[in-house]
Amino acid sequence: MKALPQISEAEFEVMKVIWKHAPISTNEITDRLTQTTKWSPKTIQTLIKRLVTKGALSYEKQSRVFVYTPLIEEREYIGQESHSFLERYYNGDITAMLSAYIEDDKLSESEIDALHSLLLKGRKRRN
Asked: Which of 2, 42, 97, 123 is the most buried (most CB within 10 A)?
């Protein structure tokens, strides 16, 4: 697995918009984020520049507009972050993590059913 760039929480919010709507212009990113955050357009532009510098985004100038495309896959990044979380807090033991969630009543019945279904699918793939 290749090492992906470290992305802050704020940068991750920008990436979520780009992953969902790419290719997307600076103005479109700004319009979407000013509706859901209290960030100024200047802050959003700074976050976009950081993501380009980190290698998470590429851009293309189309006329007078910059259009951004992700260089990392959403699923790949979330998988890396999930793995890091699991290693950091549960020593890589997913059973311990799920047990903690279940014991603290943090999972609803529907979430438990969904997990059960995923586990059964995983078992079928291995057989």
From this structure: 97
- What tokens appear for 71 in the block? 């260089």
What is the three-class DSSP state of 58?
A: strand
Question: Residue 95 and residue 105: Cα distance in Å, rounded?
Answer: 15
User: What would the two tokens of residue 101 be?
Assistant: 């969630």
CA distances, 122 to each of 1, 14, 56, 92 (Å): 21, 32, 31, 18
What is the length of the chain? Answer: 127
Distance from C-alpha of 98 to C-alpha of 41, rounded to nearest angstrom:
40
Q: Which DSSP symbol is given to 2? A: P
Q: Please give the structure tokens belonging to residue 36.
A: 């859901």
3-state secondary structure of 66: strand
Query: How distant is the alpha carbon of residue 29 from its chain centre?
Result: 16
Q: Whole-angstrom Cα distance, residue 71 to residue 56?
A: 5
Closest CA to 32 of 47, 46, 13, 51: 13
pTM exceeds 0.90, yes or no = no
Residue whose token pair is 């699923």: 75
